[in-house]
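ARCHIVE CARD
Drawer: 12
Card no.: 0347
Subject: one protein chain, sequence and derived structure
Cross-reference: see card 0346
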Amino acid sequence: MRRSRSIALVGLAAAGLGGCAGDPPRAPLSYPDSGVSSCALSAQYRDVGLGISVDHHADGPITIEAVRAEGARDLEVVGAALVDVGSHYRTGFGPWPIEPDRRWGTPRTAFGRTVPAGEHVDLVVHLRRTAESGTADDLVIEYRAGGRQYAADVHQAVSIDPTCA
């Protein structure tokens, strides 16, 4: 069963989205299937940012290459930013663009950026609806580590909808 959370977006708030570094022999990043679904009201938002924690504990760096929206209907990934996060703040889900903040500094373009081992950053994915409502069943992070290509299923559904019902 999917848990749902509707929001009246008040900026990117501190909220962890359950991403943790996984089993290094399999892949440097993995995320539990938590069944989380997030929704923003389409009357207020055409573009949103969804923060995904990248707590990278593998031996070497990873390079973020892309994010895919699986099962997307009228919702597209426009881009993404990386923000440094402290031990008490995560970016969460809110309006795009993500602004510089004292809690995480200035966002920087994510695609092609390397995340060193031991870093704690949030990957804030810029999503845009292309119709009255837009949805995606899941988000997948494509990245490179140790000369190999990986794809991490985030297990996060997202929608921008008139009712978020």
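Annotation on reverse: The longest strand covers residues 75-84. The chain has a mean pLDDT of 84.
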